Amino acid sequence: MFRLLFRVWHYSAAQLTSLFNERADPRIQIEQAIEEAKQQHLRLADQAAAVIGNQRELQLKMVRTASEIQRLDTSATQALRLADGAQAKGDDKAARGYDRSAQLFATQLATTESSLADLRELHERSALAAAAAERALEQNRFHLQRQLAERSKMLTDLESARMQQRMADALKAIDRLAPAGTIPTLPQIRDRIDRQIGQSTGRVEIALNSVESRIVDVERAVVDSRAAELLEQIRQREGLAPAKEE
């Protein structure tokens, strides 16, 4: 029963995540992914800095330990010389004291040399770890740069897609602005104009061929003939030359 509930919960969570991803703003998702990549790079940089810092710390300890070894060696050598000098003078008590000091210095010297050997081993390991950390950091830096470049490309593509969507919506809106019975489209207006021209031309032709039109033409011809006769009479009366025939 518990396993079934777990599977149902897991399925529901996956479905909700899928629905969220489908409806989420891609620009915000891109910025979130880039921000996560930057944070990951910062965490990796902190880890690399810690590894490299540990290597530097081991180097300083090695330098100090080497100096301590040199000091202990010098002190042990000096104690032995003093013991040998006291022995030569017959001062056994002083010679034994110098011998004990030399022994103490030698013991510290042996312990310090062992510590230096351990530090060298740790330093070798830390050097390998530091080199690996630097390589990982460099690779991640390169990966982050590629992600930033991809981000710019994706944002450009996203803006282009949105612009195309806006254009498609605008075209759909234009189509919806001229449904049947409302504002006509340009082709419809052109058809109406052509019909009006055709109808007007037809009316003119009909008018020209009608009986009334012929009567008007006859009456106009009579008037024109009478006007020509009057003009000819006026020319003869005034002694003017007759009109030239056209």
Structure description:
By secondary structure, this protein is mainly α. It folds into 2 domains: 24-177, Orthogonal Bundle (Helix Hairpins); 186-238. The chain is 90% helix and 0% strand. The protein is built from 5 helices and no strands. The protein has helices spanning 2-23, 26-88, 92-177, 186-208, 211-238.
Quickly describe the structure.
This protein is an all-alpha fold and 246 residues long. It contains five helices and no strands.
Order of helices and strands: HHHHH
Count of domains: 2
| Range of strand content | under 5%
Q: Quote the average pLDDT.
A: 78
Number of helical segments with 4 or more residues: 5
Distance between the first and last residues' Cα: 119 Å
Question: What would CATH call the class of the largest domain?
Answer: Mainly Alpha
Key traits:
2 domains, 246 residues, rod-shaped, 5 helices, mainly alpha
Helices and strands, with pairings:
Layout: H1 2-23, H2 26-88, H3 92-177, H4 186-208, H5 211-238
Helix pairs in contact: 2-3
